[in-house]
Amino acid sequence: MGCPIEDDKGDELILAYGANTLTPQQHIDIELHLGTCANCRERAEAQRAVWTALDTWQPTEVTPDFDERLFRRIANEGQNAWWRQLSPVNWPWRSTLPVAVACSALIAAFLLKNPALGPEVQTHQPKLQIEQVEHALDDMDMLKQLSIESAPDKANPSEKI
Amino acid sequence: MRLSWSVVASAVLLMFVASVPANPKPAKQHAEKPSKNSKTPIDEFMRMSPEERQKALNRLPPEQRSRLQERLRRFNQLPSEQQQTLRNMYDRLNQLPPQRQQAVRRSMNQFSKQTPDRRQAMRQELRGMAPLEPQDREARMASPEFREKFSEKEQGIIRDMADLVPPR
User: Fold this and answer.
1) What gap in Å lies between CA B86 and CA B119, rounded to an integer?
2) Are residues B126 and A148, on separate chains, in Cβ contact within 8 Å?
3) Contact residues, chain A, for B18 at CB < 8 Å
4) What is the DSSP string of A97-121?
5) Quick one: closest CA in A to B129, which residue?
6) How far apart are alpha carbons A107 and B11 in whole angstroms?
7) Residues 6+ apart with CB under 8 A from B164
């Protein structure tokens, strides 16, 4: 058998040797090689140390109420989030947020469409000119001649305003 | 999902509000239905405070000022129904394009120069046209009877002044 380190699958072979998953023939072959190859022996021993450590490790026993306590802690973390602490009241955000968005849109649209409620805008309406009143009276005088909606005898079309 | 619906609803609301005119101007009165609340310069003048009115009048020479005050007094003494009729016709006149307004004013001037009986005949014709739809008025003015009854000049006067006559 050639040196497994020089082979592409050398690491896999040594790992399998440490895990005792090699076939009997492969096991014999690699043990013969380890007797002559210091590098491979060193790797195999390191691998064996890992397996030994894993065999001796005792996992901490999980308490029966572990899941319950874990979920409670997750819930508490959510409640104590910084953005929740900013709000004095525990708002039901999921239901109020859509309403808030809709109200904001309405207010924005209202202000956009009624700029007079925003910054004060002065609209300069031209003041009524007294000449306009005179012209209107002239027009009324002419129109009065028609008097088609009034009884001719009651209205006096000839009389000027 | 609920949030996305709210965004859609907000967008729809926004579009609805945006579609409403900003400063809803009173819709221009359609020629067929003049406003009962017409706003002539005379009405505007009468709504001014006494001080403002006096200030405006003081801009006129004394003689012209007293003549105008007298005309205003006479207008205000007209029966309210007649005042409203005149306001309606004034509105209709002012809603016409400027060139048409000039034509109507010319015709009214011509009208005043006609003899009383011809004026009365034209008034009567206009009164008869008042309840007619525009196409019926046209038909009437194209009728042989109309053409026979009125001279070409009178026909022109009636045609122009018919624009001021509100349908009843």
Assistant:
1) 18
2) yes
3) 109, 112-113
4) HHHHHHHHHHHHHHHHH-GGGSS--
5) A148
6) 13
7) A143, A146, B89, B92, B93, B104
Enter the tokens of residue A81.
């989030």
List, in order, residues 6 or more apart from B128 with CB less than 8 Å away: B140
Which residues of A fall within a CB distance of 8 Å from B59? 130
Structure tokens at A143: 């129109």
Angle CA(B113)–CA(B119)–CA(B124) in degrees, nearest 5? 160
Output phi, psi for A42, to 5 deg: -60, -45
A96 three-class SS = helix
Complex-level ipTM beyond the 0.85 threshold: no
What is the rounded distance in angstroms from the CA atom of residue A37 to the CA atom of residue A81? 60
The per-residue pLDDT string of chain B (168 residues; one tens digit each, 9 = 90 and over) reads: 555 555 565 565 555 555 555 444 443 333 333 344 668 999 999 989 999 999 999 989 999 999 999 999 999 999 998 898 889 889 999 999 999 999 999 999 999 899 999 999 999 999 899 889 889 999 999 999 999 999 999 999 999 999 888 765
User: Which of A125, A140, A153 to probe by mutation at the B interface, max B CB count within 10 Å?
Assistant: A140
